[in-house]
C-alpha cells in the first residue's frame, strides 16, 4: 500500500480500476450531492401546518401578487439537512490551514462567541431607551479606549461596517477637514501595490487617483512620492505593513513629506495584526487608519460573519468624526447622536456591529496587552518560517525577512507550463484553501501566504511539505497534475470570470 510522507495510506486499499463508476444516488461515499433548494422541494407541499385561510379582503389596494411565489415546501428535517450538507462543502478556518494572504484568517476563540451571545449584548435593539443599554455603551467605550491606546490616536469612529467602509469614513473626514479650511484638493495618491479598495474609495469620494511606484525592495519610492506631492494632493493612502508583507521603514519621512505638503496621511490598517502592541500608528504620523476587527481581532469573516471597520483619527481630524459616538458622563455613558457642523454626520443607520465589538473586546481582554503583542510576534515568526522553509524551492519576491505574510512570485514556475492559478488549484487537491494569488499586482503571478499566529508548527510543516511537493512536481514537468486540478474536488475548473461578470442570481425552473 502506498504511503504519503506522513506515513499514512494514500488509498483505501480497494481495487482502483473500479472506482470510477457513478453511484445510483449521485452521492459519492459520504460526500453528498446537493441540488438547489428549489430542485429539492415541491411547491405542492408545505413544511408548516397552518389552517386554511377563509374569505378575506386584501387591504393593499390591488397591489397583491398574482403569480405563484414558487417557494419549495420542505419539512424542517429536510431544510436542516439541506443547509447542513451545504455547510459541509464550506472550507473554513475550523477545518484546516487557510493561508489567504491579506485576509488574516485566524482562529476565532470560542470565548468571544460566548460573550457575544450574552443576552445583554445579543438581544438589545438600537432604538431601546439609552438608560437600558448602559452596559453596551460601556463596552463600546472600553473598546474605543483599547483601539486608541493600541494606536496612540485620540479619537475613534466605531460604526463603519468593513475595512472598505472605514476607508470611506477616513477619506470623508479628510475631505471634511479640507473643506473646513477652504482648501479644495482633488488628488489622492496610492502606491501601486495598494489593495483595490484604496483607489476605489478615493474615486468614490470624487478624487482623482494617482499611483506611486515602488522601489526594488518592495517599499514606496519616497523620492517619487515627494515629487508627486503638491497642493492638489488631499491625501496619501498607504498600507503598513504593506501588501507585499513588508514594513514601510521610511514611514516617518513619508508622513513628514505628506504633512509638509498640507495633505493627510491615511493608513490602511488591514495588516495591523503584524504590529499590534509593537508600533503605534499615531507615533508614525498617521492621520486616520481603519482596523478590520474581523481580521486583526479575530472575529469570524469570509462568508462567515459581518465585518467591522472602526477608524482612529489624529488631532487634525478628530473634530470631523461621524456620529453616533459614546461619551463618558458624570453618571455613566451617553450616546452623541446629533452632528455638529464639523462632524461628517451619520455613516450608518444605527451604531455599527455590536456583536463584533463584543468579540473584539473579548479577544483583547483575554489576550491582555502582552498577549496581543505576542500574537503579532508569533504571526511574524510563522510567516518567516514559511518564507524560510519554501525559499529554496519557490521564488520569494523580496530579500530579507517579511512581516506577517510571505510573498512569492511565479519565477520558479518559469518554463514549467504551470501557472500560479494551476498551482493554487493543485493545493485544493492537497486539502488546502489556496493562498491569495495574483495580488499584489506589483509582482508577477503573486502567491501571498499568511499563516497567522494561530497555526501550530505541526500544521505549518504539513502545509510546507505539500507546497514543496507541488513545487517539485511542477519542476519535474508533471504538468498534468496541475492543468486539470483540482481532481479531488466535486467541481473542477469553474469559469470564474463568467460567474463574476454574468452572475445568475435568480432561479428559474426549466420548463
Ligand atoms: C481586507 C483588506 C481591505 C478591505 O477590508 P474589508 O473589510 O474586506 O472591506 C482593505 N485593504 C487591505 C490591505 C485588506 O487586506
UniProtKB/TrEMBL annotation:
An MF annotation (GO) of this entry:
glycine dehydrogenase (decarboxylating) activity
Q: Which residues form the Glycine dehydrogenase C-terminal domain?
A: 375-476
Please name one Pfam family that this protein belongs to. Answer: Aminotran_5
Keywords associated with the record: Oxidoreductase, Pyridoxal phosphate
Catalytic reactions of this protein: N(6)-[(R)-lipoyl]-L-lysyl-[glycine-cleavage complex H protein] + glycine + H(+) = N(6)-[(R)-S(8)-aminomethyldihydrolipoyl]-L-lysyl-[glycine-cleavage complex H protein] + CO2
- Please explain the role this protein plays, according to its UniProt record: The glycine cleavage system catalyzes the degradation of glycine. The P protein binds the alpha-amino group of glycine through its pyridoxal phosphate cofactor; CO(2) is released and the remaining methylamine moiety is then transferred to the lipoamide cofactor of the H protein.
Name recorded for this polypeptide: glycine dehydrogenase (aminomethyl-transferring)
Q: Which organism is it from?
A: Kordiimonas lipolytica
Amino acid at each position: 500500500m502506498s504511503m504519503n510522507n506522513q506515513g499514512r495510506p494514500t488509498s483505501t486499499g480497494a481495487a482502483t480500476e473500479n472506482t470510477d463508476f457513478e453511484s445510483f444516488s449521485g452521492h459519492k461515499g459520504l460526500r453528498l450531492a446537493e441540488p438547489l433548494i428549489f430542485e429539492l422541494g415541491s411547491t405542492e407541499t408545505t413544511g408548516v401546518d397552518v389552517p386554511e385561510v377563509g374569505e378575506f379582503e386584501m387591504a393593499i389596494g390591488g397591489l397583491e401578487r398574482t403569480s405563484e411565489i414558487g417557494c419549495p415546501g420542505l419539512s424542517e428535517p429536510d431544510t436542516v439537512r439541506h443547509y447542513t450538507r451545504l455547510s459541509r462543502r464550506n472550507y473554513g478556518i475550523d477545518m484546516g490551514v487557510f493561508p489567504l494572504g491579506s485576509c488574516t484568517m485566524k482562529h476565532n476563540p470560542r470565548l468571544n462567541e460566548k460573550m457575544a451571545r450574552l443576552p445583554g449584548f445579543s438581544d438589545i435593539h438600537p432604538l431601546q431607551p439609552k438608560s437600558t443599554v448602559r452596559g453596551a455603551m460601556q463596552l463600546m467605550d472600553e473598546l474605543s479606549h483599547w483601539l486608541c491606546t493600541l494606536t496612540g490616536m485620540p479619537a475613534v469612529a466605531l460604526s463603519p461596517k468593513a475595512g472598505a467602509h472605514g476607508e470611506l469614513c477616513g477619506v470623508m473626514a479628510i475631505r471634511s477637514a479640507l473643506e473646513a479650511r477652504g482648501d479644495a484638493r482633488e488628488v489622492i495618491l496610492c502606491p501601486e501595490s495598494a489593495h483595490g479598495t484604496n483607489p476605489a474609495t478615493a474615486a468614490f469620494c470624487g478624487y482623482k487617483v494617482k499611483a506611486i511606484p515602488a522601489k526594488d525592495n518592495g517599499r514606496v519610492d519616497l523620492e517619487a512620492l515627494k515629487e508627486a506631492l503638491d497642493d492638489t494632493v488631499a491625501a496619501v493612502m498607504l498600507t503598513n505593513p504593506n501588501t507585499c508583507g513588508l514594513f514601510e521603514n521610511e514611514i516617518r519621512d513619508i508622513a513628514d513629506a505628506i504633512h509638509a505638503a498640507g495633505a493627510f496621511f491615511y493608513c490602511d490598517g488591514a495588516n495591523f495584526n503584524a504590529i499590534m502592541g509593537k508600533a503605534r500608528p499615531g507615533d508614525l504620523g498617521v492621520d486616520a487608519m481603519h482596523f478590520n476587527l474581523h481580521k486583526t481581532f479575530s472575529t469570524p469573516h469570509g462568508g462567515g460573519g459581518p465585518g467591522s471597520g472602526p477608524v482612529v483619527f489624529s488631532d487634525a481630524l478628530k473634530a470631523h468624526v461621524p456620529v453616533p459616538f459614546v461619551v463618558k458622563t458624570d453618571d455613566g455613558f451617553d450616546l452623541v447622536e446629533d452632528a455638529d457642523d464639523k462632524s461628517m454626520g451619520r455613516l450608518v443607520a444605527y451604531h455599527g456591529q455590536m456583536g463584533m465589538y463584543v468579540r473584539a473586546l473579548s479577544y483583547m481582554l483575554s489576550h491582555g496587552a502582552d498577549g496581543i503583542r505576542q500574537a503579532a510576534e508569533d504571526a511574524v515568526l510563522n510567516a518567516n518560517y514559511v518564507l524560510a522553509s519554501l525559499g529554496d524551492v519557490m521564488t520569494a519576491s523580496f530579500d530579507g525577512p517579511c512581516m506577517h505574510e510571505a510573498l512569492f512570485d511565479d519565477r520558479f514556475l518559469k518554463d514549467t507550463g504551470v501557472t500560479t492559478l494551476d498551482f493554487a488549484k493543485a493545493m485544493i487537491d492537497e486539502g488546502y484553501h489556496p493562498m491569495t494569488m495574483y495580488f499584489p499586482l506589483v509582482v508577477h503571478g503573486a502567491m501571498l501566504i499568511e499563516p497567522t499566529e494561530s497555526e501550530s508548527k505541526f500544521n505549518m510543516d504539513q502545509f510546507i511539505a505539500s507546497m514543496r511537493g507541488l513545487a517539485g512536481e511542477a519542476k519535474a514537468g508533471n504538468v498534468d497534475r496541475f492543468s486539470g486540478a483540482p481532481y479531488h474536488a466535486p467541481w473542477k475548473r469553474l469559469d470564474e470570470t463568467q460567474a463574476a461578470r454574468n452572475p445568475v442570481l435568480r432561479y428559474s425552473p426549466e420548463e
